[in-house]
What does this fold into?
Amino acid sequence: MLVFRVENEKKQGPYCGSRCGLLPGWARDNNPMPCNDGIKRIDIDKEVFGFETLDQLLEWFNKYELNILENNGFKISAYKIKRKFVKRGGKQVCFVQHRAIFMGTAT
It folds into this structure.
């Protein structure tokens, strides 16, 4: 399956460390924490977050936020991964990044 992720060149997402302050209102009601979205037992050393579809990604980040992220070095990356390495939530997915094959970035 394909999964999509917003990340920088170091493969870090926008909610990693000090970058949380990049987005206004990043903890909106429609962007639940994984534990509130049906994703349990996360291994933060191996698993990262993304989306099952581009539509799902665009429901999470609006165009304004994606522009801010792009201006700070973030891009939308696509990965191919076996379903058994993906945990599905209602609005996001969690996957084992080292098991995924990088397919490229969207512009």
Q: What stands out?
A: The radius of gyration is 13 Å. Residues 2-106 form one domain.
